[in-house]
Amino acid sequence: MGEWRKVLAEVDAGTERVVATVAGLGEEELRGPSALPGWTRGHVATHIARNADSLWNLLEWARTGEEIPQYPSMEARNADLEAGAGRGAAALAEDLRASAERLSAQAARLPEEAWDRTVRAMPGWRHPAWFTVYRRWHEVEAHHVDLAAGYGPAGWPVAYVEWALTSTLADLAALPPDLRGALEGYRLVATDTGDAADLGGAAEISGGGRALLAWLSGRSAGEGLLMRPDGPLPVPPPWPYAPSGF
User: Fold this and answer.
1) Cis amide bond preceding 128, omega within 30
2) Is 80 exceeded by the pLDDT of residue 2?
3) For domain 159-228, is the CATH number 3.30.1050?
4) Interval 89-104: pLDDT, tens
5) Are 184 and 200 in contact, with CB atoms under 8 Å apart?
């Protein structure tokens, strides 16, 4: 994961794609359902913007050494979503761009020694500050799909798929068996890259890496995957998983 600095540019490019998508949506489309249950496209766009602010908080924690939570509380996070979801396309797009620019500016001025300081994600797991860059990459690419506005896993950059698939499989394999859910007892194999996760069984789910990542991340129903022995695909546990290797 030492290549994290290069990811900053990938995140900025991904954000611009999201901004372009949101800016092109009409009022009815923004109020329409996203791919996330209970959320409109306006909710998803607002969440992406507030996520940038929340990760800014973690970089500020790393910069100052004073603990700042990612979000003040789940209630505050949800209230911000509701407050912002009803805005028009121009306001949502500007919020997305401005919040991303604040995060990028914070990253640009962060002292070198601060990047290795430990911060804590809202779910409770800890990670070095540089991992916020990868977390933001997930947010931008996965939630762009969740807008349900023409961008799907087929549009994910190759660099994102390569990193996200490798890390997802490693993090899944590192989970205790009781947290792997219905995937316990399977072997997952990306037929094009050779990436794999052995979860303790003989049954196998295989397919291209992009298709495998889309399914594990909940962004597809498993199109393009093959299961041996034949049968319905199990439901993966909630993604992303707690990062391993720190």
Assistant:
1) no
2) no
3) yes
4) 999 999 999 999 999 9
5) yes
CATH architecture, domain 4-151:
Up-down Bundle (1.20)
How many angstroms separate the CA atoms of 27 and 132, rounded? 32
pLDDT tier at 1 (50, 70, 90 boundaries)? very low
Answer whether 0.90 is exceeded by the pTM.
yes
DSSP 176-225: -GGGSGGGTTEEEEETTT--EEE-SSSEEEEE-HHHHHHHHTTSSS-TT-
Tokens of 35: 């791919």
Q: Per-residue b/e over 153-184, b at no fewer than 16 CB within 10 Å? A: beebeeebbbbbbbbbbebbbebeeeebeebb
| Cis bond before residue 229 (omega within 30° of 0) | yes
Domain limits, the chain: 4-151, 159-228
Q: Is the Cα torsion angle 196, 197, 198, 204 positive or negative in sign?
A: negative
Provide φ and ψ at 236, rounded to 5°: -65, 155
